[in-house]
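Running co-folding for heme C.
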Amino acid sequence: MKKWLYGIICVAFLGLITACGGGNDETKEDTNNTQEQTTDEQEQTADAGDGDALFQQSCSSCHGGDLVSGGAPDLDKIGSKYSKDEIEQIILKGQGGMPGGLLKGEDADAVASWLAEKK
Ligand code: HEC
C-alpha cells in the first residue's frame, strides 16, 4: 500500500548521493594551469583550484609565497592546527596582527580549504 512512499524516499536518497558524488579531485596543478588562461576576465570566480592563486594575491605579502618565508606565522602545516572552518574564520575576522576581511565569501572559502590541506 505504501509503495509510493518508498518510491519517493528512494528517489530523494538517490538524488542526495548523486548531488554529493562530485568530489574534488586532486589534480590541482592541472586546474590551475587552465584557469590562468582566462585572464581577460578580472572577476574572481573562486573554486577549490583558486586557493593557491588567491593566497598569492592576498596573503603572500605577509605569509610568504611558499607559506613559510614571510614575517607572519608559517602556514605550511596549518591544516593540522586548524580546521577549514577555523581558517575561514581567521580570514574573515582577522587574528592578532592580521587584518580580517582580506578575502570574503567564496574566495575566503577557497583559500581556507586549500590551506586546510597543508599538513
Ligand atoms: C598584513 C599581513 C597579513 C596578511 C596580508 C595576512 N596575514 Fe595571516 N597572519 C598575519 C599575522 C601577523 C598573523 C599572526 C596573528 C596573531 O596570532 O597574532 C597571522 C595569522 C594567520 C593565521 C593563523 C596562524 C596560526 O598559526 O595561528 C592564518 C591561518 C592566517 N594568518 C591566514 C592568512 C590568510 C589565508 C591570508 C590571506 C587571506 C592572510 N593570513 C593574510 C599577517 C597577515
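Result summary
Residues 58-59, 61-63, 72-73, 75, 78, 81, 87, 90-91, 95-99, 102-103, 111, 115 surround heme C (CB under 6 Å).
Residues 35-44 have pLDDT under 50 and may be disordered.
Job closed.
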